[in-house]
Amino acid sequence: MFRALRNGWRLLRMAVSFARHDALFPLESLGIAPALIAWARLFAPRGDTRRPGERLAAALQDMGPSFIKLGQALSTRADLLSEEVAADLARLQDHIPAFPGAEARRIIESELGQPLAAVFSSFDDVPVAAASIAQVHFAVTTDGRDVAVKVLRPGIGKAFEQDLDLFYWMAELVERTQPRFRRLKPVESVRAFADVVRVEMDLRMEAAAAEELGENFADDPNYRAPRIDWDRTAERVMTQERVDGIPIGDRDAIIAAGHDPHEIMRKCAEAFFYQVFRDGFFHADMHGGNAFVDRQGTIVPVDFGIMGRVDEDTRGYLAELLVAFLRRDYHAVAEVQFRAGYVPPDQSLETFAQACRSIGEPIFGKPSHQISIARLLAQMLRVTEQFEMSAQPQLLLLQKTMLMAEGMGTKLNPNVNIWELARPLIEDWMVTHFGPRATVSRAAQDLAQGLRRLPRLIDSLHVVAEHERRKAERDAEQPTQASRFRARFAEVVAILALIAAIAAWWH
User: Distance (Å, rounded) from C-alpha 261 to C-alpha 276?
Assistant: First the structure.
């Protein structure tokens, strides 16, 4: 009851804030607390000429850091909002006023347990970047290395926990009262969002992500992650190598430095492919300001707070889906999604393939460099209600990353499609991992694993049978209906265990 009262009051404040920007339409579409939303509508201005997405972005910006993050996450959900609104949210800026340098010094000393002068010979009080969760200061270590120091905002953890509780409460309310939204898995979507945010709140996790990405590209001359200074890193402070390079979104500066934008774009496409399909671990916030081109032409990403993971099966489905779309094979596109379980099996494969064609052909009728796979996938979500498809929250980060990759590619070379550059790598990966030889190899590995499990299953069968035999012996002196039932139950258990052993053998 207390939670409902607390979040009901916060929902009221949120509705009034949205109303002041005439941006109540998301809350109205959810159908929760209609009387409250109708009352908040009284605060809406008249004659606001901004687009709906612009009004919603402004409202979220005013609500603070967690709402800014939520808006960026919603920018991938064209199934919930129109494509125009999603595009406006994608431009939502994660920039808020910096907190004082003196406060940053206090946090660093508290986290590292020693005076700032003991770890840094110089520290710039004015941050070079300030976002919703943290800000970054340049510094020089006592051993003379140029570094960037990321410091978490004071009190940000508590503020996010309160907002996350509100989001969970609203998602639970929607699932209980609005059955038509259940396939979109609102609670699971909030949980995925919360997982990302909580990782961002611990800068040791971000440092670990940077190091893992760096290890994955240790032998790659075209892509690398900055080195982490673990001695100067803690929960609310992260110190890393200062990157000396050109923002990858600044095409003119890249050309002036003597680099070929097309070659840089090719390296981006390869790096994206390797992260998603080879490693299943990718940088999920790759906008133009979060990667640099150094003097050697190597791409160096920064800001590892948002990372994504994709399991091997999902990677296979994604590769098939992407290649099928590029080949305009809509029957294959439909088959992939049926096999992945994204579309219920009682739906018509042919009708779904026709729906995919209706989405794909208008896009593929354009010049190659104007084709947006990320937009195509977003439009596919519009048919989810018709085919009773469930949302896939684990893919939202990837969809967002694909959109960012396309935007970055367009800035570097507007006449080339980044997915066409990655297509040969994806097709080769498909042959290597899903061709006949790979299929036989996986079957052999599964058989070997089944054989290794077989002795344990047989031992378990023996233990269960022996246990039931002793029970039967004890009951033999006084045969009752219960003892006969246990004897039969023992037979059933033995048969089931044998079936499990045979299944392990074949799988």
Answer: 23
- Are 134 and 150 in contact, with CB atoms under 8 Å apart? yes
Give me the phi and psi of 49, to 5 degrees please: -90, 0
Q: Residue 81 class from Cβ within 10 Å (0-12 exposed, 13-18 middle, 19+ buried)?
A: buried
State which amino acid sits at residue 162. Q
Strands (E), 55-189: 120-123, 129-130, 134-141, 146-152
Residue that wins the pLDDT comparison between 390 and 256 = 256
**C-alpha dist (Å) from residue 87 to 33, 50, 378:** 27, 14, 11
> Is the confidence at residue 470, as pLDDT, over 80?
no
CA distance 438 to 428: 12
Task: Give the 3-state DSSP-derived string for 236-284, with helices as H, strands as E and coil as C.
Answer: CEEEEECCCCEECCCHHHHHHCCCCHHHHHHHHHHHHHHHHHHHCEEEC
Cβ-based neighbour number of residue 383 at 10 Å:
16
| Residue linked to tokens 């949980």 | 191
Instruction: Give, for 402, the enclosing helix (H) or strand (E).
Output: helix 396-412
287 and 247 Cβ atoms separated by less than 8 Å = no
Taking the model in full, what pTM does it have?
0.74
What is the percent of the chain with per-residue pLDDT over 90, rounded to a whole number? 28
Give the separation between CA 472 and CA 478, rounded to whole angstroms: 10
**Mean pLDDT of the region 434-438:** 58
Query: What amino acid positions are annotated as catalytic residues?
Result: 285
Is residue 151 classed as helix, strand or coil in its secondary structure?
strand
Sign of the C-alpha dihedral, residues 397, 402, 406, 412? Answer: positive
Using only the alpha carbons of the chain, give its radius of gyration. 28
* CA distance readout (Å), 132 to 75, 98, 192, 503: 17, 9, 19, 52
Q: Is 308 helix (H, G, I), strand (E, B) or coil?
A: strand
Mapped onto helix, strand or coil, the DSSP state of residue 345 is: coil
- Predicted pLDDT of residue 415: 79
Cα separation, 470 vs 78, in Å, equals: 63
- Provide the residue type at 280 as one letter: G
Phi (first) and psi of residue 249, to 5 degrees: -85, -5
Number of Cβ within 10 Å of residue 386's Cβ equals 11
Tokens of 171: 């998602």
Which of 195-209, 336-350, 362-376 tops mean pLDDT?
195-209
Identify the burial level of 138 via C-beta atoms within 10 angstroms of its C-beta, where 0-12 means exposed, 13-18 middle and 19 or more buried: middle
Amino acid symbol at 34: P
How many other CB atoms are there within 10 angstroms of residue 204's CB atom?
16
> Are 375 and 417 a contacting pair, CB within 8 Å?
no
Q: What is the 3-state secondary structure (H, E, C) of 102-120?
A: HHHHHHHHHHHCCCHHHCE
